[in-house]
Design goal:
Elements (H helix, E strand, L loop, with lengths): L1 E4 L6 E9 L2 E9 L2 H11 L4 H8 L11 H21 L1
Antiparallel strand pairs: 1-2, 2-3
Helix pairs in contact: 2-3
């Protein structure tokens, strides 16, 4: 399932992801720190969304109360909820 998320309070503008059976199959960010976000994407692809949520939830960027990785966890939660909602239909 393809999903796009607009993060709040960070430099990245959009998070694009694809989840199949709870596993992240594709992930990219628009905006933000390109090298770091490519690294986050490569580390997350092929892993269970729940594992990434556990690892990255709550990470802060400088004095900000959130970060691009933390916003990714919010995107993953929404995508998983949407996926389970569509599976129940």
């Amino acid at each position: 399932m393809k999903f796009s998320f607009t993060p709040q309070g960070v430099c990245s503008r959009v998070i694009h992801l694809d989840i199949e059976d709870g596993v992240i199959t594709d992930l990219s960010f628009e905006g933000g720190c390109n090298g770091n976000l490519q690294g986050v994407s490569r580390l997350a692809i092929g892993r269970k969304a729940d594992d990434i949520i556990e690892l990255l939830s709550g990470i802060q960027c400088g004095l900000r109360p959130t970060s691009c990785p933390d916003q990714l966890t919010k995107a993953l939660r929404k995508a998983l909820a949407a996926q389970s909602g569509s599976a129940a239909s």
